[in-house]
Amino acid sequence: MKLDTLAGWARRLRARDISSRELTELYLGRIDRLDSQLNSFISVTPDLALAAADAADERLARGEEAPLLGLPVAQKDIFCTLGVRTSCGSKMLDNFIAPYTATVVERMNAAGAVTLGKTNMDEFAMGSSNETSHYGPVRNPWDPERVPGGSSGGSAAAVAARLAPAATGTDTGGSIRQPAAFCGITGIKPTYGRVSRYGMIAFASSLDQAGPMAASAEDCALMLNAMAGFDTRDSTSVERPAEDFTAGLGTDLKGLRIGLPREFFGEGLDPGVRAATEAALAVLRERGAELIEISLPNSGLSVPAYYVVAPAECSSNLARYDGVRFGHRCDEPRDLMDLYTRSRAEGFGAEVKRRIMIGTYVLSAGYYDAYYLKAQKVRRLIADDFRRAFGQVDVIAGPTSPEIPFRLGEKSADPVQMYLSDIYTIAVNLAGLPGLSMPAGTVGNLPVGVQLIGNYFDEARLLGVAHQFQQETDWHARMPAAFV
Amino acid sequence: MSLNSDEVRRIAQLARLAVDDREAEGFAAGLSDIFDFVEALNAAEIGGVEPMAHPLDAEQRLRPDAVTEPDQRELFQALAPAADGGLYLVPRVIE
């Protein structure tokens, strides 16, 4: 059977061309056959999936309508799922069977989605290559010697290889957009507060935000409709009326002002990525958009500011893993201190430890003002840059990543080089804005993503611009040859 | 800024992470590179700038002071490495 998009499958389910059970079996079969090449799933849950599919088929037979009714999806293994292991890519939580369900998963289940399993990720979402996972790296379906990006690398690879028509991701500094770019799919990080963080294992709470990853912008809009919404259980959830994110898909680009930050096209940008980005921007211009050069003068400080703010929040959030209440515990602790320090040393990998230590240091007595407070002030400067830019333009565009997917192991020994992989995405998290990555070309055989950044709560417009681009191009419809 | 192994051991102790001597040296090099990189923040002109803790500058929401969570002690303690009689077990703290 020819593989379809989420929106396409939704139409075929309603037309009774296929049942949810058949569709679910199709994707479970692909995972079974093909995922050994990718390692994109940590847990596959066929029994639960088929039970959910049968329930969806009954609802479909009764003529019920629900946005994701009967559609198979994958959940990043950062979302708690009642009764199913939720590892967050860490040895610390290898034995953790979640005692409750994240709001995102609950909402998607209520909308009729069928969960195929839980996808691989960088440990506690800390990484840009999916190499820090306790369960081993994920491989890029376009070239198995290369990384899929991270931290939502399992979700990105699974969607790119069509082992699931769509998946959830989370994005603290680029973790939806950079892997979406590396794997040739579409992903959107909504405005901070749009999607509930309840049951989403915390990394940096003022930056973490969940979003959809799928082949097309239309599919992402469908998913986001189910994922987003006010939740009293998340204290930073934004109280706004429900919005239809598919509403902007039909809007043409005439008169749309697109800002191109000159800082995103400077030194360090791969020439092939630049060429593909410029070609994609030309398509948007041909469809009526106006391209305007702008400046985000403080964006160069975004990665340094992030590597103070995010580790500070991480060191505080990860203090909960103490070897006492849940998670990994060392054998035969001598005393309480030995229990804490050895359980944590054994349970966490090197990158997580590194970030906990950075955070502990910048928050420790005597260093708070020099690091944390300064970084929070720089964060304001970065947000103010965007505020000024959005007085001038409707959307900001540029490359998602400065480079093509790099080789496994290429950056493992140099944390700073790895961090710079997110140089164009991090400022968006610091400001709390929505950002989308869409497939926009290739360098050789490898995908290139273009990032669209919107003003607060302007997700529908971003999805609309990407959808218009996808009407004119077929990058989003291409599949890696080994997985056709 | 350059951190030595002793400083790394002190930070690791604050963070409740056991590190041996070899690991401490490895982390000293990596963390020193990161702190050098973060030094770029010193170039920012931040006089009079308000620190930003939350992207939307939202205030903490209040809710009615009502019980919303049921008692799920048994469910939660089933996840504990060692629990007995409703208590979490740890090595002896008081001799």
Summarize the structure.
By secondary structure, chain A is α/β, with parallel strands linked by helices. Helices cover 37% and strands 13% of the residues of chain A.
Kindly report how far apart the N and C termini of chain A lie. Answer: 11 Å
The share of residues in helices of chain B is 25-40%
CATH topology of the domain at 5-42 in chain B: Histone, subunit A
Q: In order across it, which strands form the biggest sheet of chain A?
A: 4-6-5-10-11-9-7-8
| CATH first level of the domain at 5-42 in chain B | Mainly Alpha
Number of strands of chain B: 2
Q: Could you give the order of the helices and strands of chain B? A: HHHEE
Treating each run of at least 4 consecutive H or I residues as one helix, how many helices of chain A? 15
What is the third-level CATH name, the topology of the largest domain in chain A? Amidase signature (AS) enzymes
Query: Helix- and strand-based class of chain A?
Result: alpha/beta
> What is the overall silhouette of chain A?
globular
Round the Cα radius of gyration of chain B to an integer and report it.
22 Å
Helix/strand structural class of chain B: mainly alpha
Query: CATH superfamily membership of the largest domain in chain A, which one?
Result: Amidase signature (AS) domain
Which architecture of the largest domain in chain A would the CATH scheme give at its second level? Alpha-Beta Complex
Strand content of chain A: 5-15%
> What is the string of SSEs of chain A from the N terminus onward?
HHEHEHEHEHEEHEHEHHHHEHHEEH
